[in-house]
């Protein structure tokens, strides 16, 4: 029998000597990195259906130079709750690129479609050449067209994905702000009915390009036409439901800096509201859907 060198009597290991590396407990959903085991750490993630933001975030690449952009806090909330790191957000109305900027800030990727070439050119300046290859792909095109959908598919493939993991839709609110005089522009429709039909085409492309089980967000406000409310929000929401999206949340968000309710014209609008029986819009909707 071979002899053991030195003290052959093995001492029992004390508990303190053992380096126990305790793995943190993690439980997430398939679509988010939120650790449900530590759900109390996420007090900043909003779960209420009423969102009040005192001001627009202007730091971290965001600015307010584009009339009609959404506030970055919406992207922050949506991405944290409904996406994972490295996921691809598809924005079919890219505008000044809020979705893309926040994707970079939060380690997500983004594909954006925007109709106006000059806007695509200026928004591209907000990203580095490398980011424009690996993280943010901007397509100049008409989101209602099959051609744009094909281009999105091609970009997804280049980025190593078959489908997007989140869909952002922030269309024009009918003709409240005219973004261009192009006939493909949703803000340039001949009627509100035509606006709904064009919106539905975009939402259908979005549905087809989104991964199953993933989420979509529609940001939209209503309008007044001929002394009557046009319920753009509810109608667009319903069109999405008819396409197969499952409605998960209806959020009402306050609008800060609505000139119709503030400043010099405030009294005029108040008078008109009192005389005409309507309310001054100070809210918009954020609808959240899931693709089953
Ligand atoms: C409400 S803005 C979106 C703003 C954007 N979310 C942001 O934060 O900057 C709507 C945008 O949709 C664009 N648009 C309108 N019709 C379009 C179409 N058919 N295809 C693609 N973009 C379109 C407009 O040019 C405008 O920039």
Shape: globular
How many E strands? 10
Would you identify the CATH architecture?
3-Layer(aba) Sandwich
- Order of SSEs: EHEHEHHEHEHEEEHEHE
Q: Quick one: biggest sheet?
A: 8 strands, mixed
Number of helices: 8
Oligomeric state as shown? single chain
Q: Strand pairing plus helix content: what structural class? A: alpha/beta
CATH superfamily: Vaccinia Virus protein VP39
Strand content: 15-25%
CATH topology: Rossmann fold
**How many domains would you count in the coordinates?**
1
Low-confidence stretches: 1-8
Measured distance between first and last alpha carbons: 68 Å
Radius of gyration equals: 24 Å
Helix content: 25-40%
Task: State the CATH class.
Answer: Alpha Beta
Q: What do the pLDDT scores average to?
A: 91
Ligand inventory reads: S-adenosylmethionine
Walkthrough of the structure:
By secondary structure, this protein is an alpha/beta fold. The chain has a single domain, classed as Rossmann fold (3-Layer(aba) Sandwich). The protein is 30% helix and 20% strand. It is built from eight helices and ten strands. The protein has helices at 72-82, 98-105, 117-124, 129-134, 146-158, 192-209, 232-243, 266-276; strands at 50-51, 88-91, 109-114, 136-140, 164-169, 210-220, 223-225, 228-230, 246-254, 283-290. The protein has an eight-stranded mixed sheet with strand order 1-9-10-6-5-2-3-4, sandwiched between helices. Strands 7-8 form a two-stranded antiparallel ribbon. Helix 1 (72-82) packs across helix 2 and helix 6 runs parallel beside helix 7 (232-243). The longest helix is centred in the last third of the chain and has 18 residues, at 192-209. The chain is globular. Residues 1-8 have low confidence and may be disordered. S-adenosylmethionine is lined by residues 66, 68-70, 93, 95-96, 98, 113-116, 142-144, 170-172, 179-180, 184-187.
């Amino acid at each position: 029998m071979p002899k053991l060198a030195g003290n052959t009597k093995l001492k029992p290991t004390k508990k303190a000597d053992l380096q126990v590396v305790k793995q943190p407990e993690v439980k997430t959903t398939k679509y988010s990195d939120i650790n449900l085991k530590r759900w109390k750490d996420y007090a900043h993630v909003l779960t209420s259906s009423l969102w009040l933001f005192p001001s627009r975030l202007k730091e971290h690449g965001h600015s307010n130079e584009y009339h009609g952009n959404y506030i970055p806090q919406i992207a922050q909330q949506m991405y944290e709750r409904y996406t994972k790191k490295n996921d691809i957000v598809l924005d079919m109305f890219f505008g000044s690129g809020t979705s893309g900027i926040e994707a970079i800030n939060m380690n997500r990727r983004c594909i954006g479609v925007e109709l106006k070439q000059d806007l695509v050119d200026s928004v591209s300046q907000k990203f580095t050449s490398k980011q424009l290859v690996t993280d943010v792909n901007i397509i100049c095109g008409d989101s209602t067209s099959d051609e744009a959908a094909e281009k999105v598919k091609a970009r997804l493939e280049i980025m190593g994905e078959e489908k997007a993991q989140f869909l952002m839709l922030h269309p024009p609110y009918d003709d409240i702000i005219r973004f261009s005089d192009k006939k493909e522009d949703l803000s340039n429709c001949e009627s509100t009915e035509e606006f709904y039909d064009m919106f539905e085409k975009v939402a259908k492309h979005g549905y087809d390009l989104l991964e199953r089980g993933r989420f979509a967000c529609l940001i939209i406000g209503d309008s007044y036409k001929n002394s009557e409310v046009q319920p753009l929000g509810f109608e667009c929401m319903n069109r999405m439901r008819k396409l197969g999206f499952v409605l998960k949340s209806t959020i009402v968000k306050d609008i800060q800096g609505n000139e119709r309710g503030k400043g010099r014209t405030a009294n005029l609008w108040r008078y008109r509201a009192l005389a005409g029986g309507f309310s001054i819009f100070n809210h918009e909707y954020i609808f959240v859907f899931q693709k089953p």
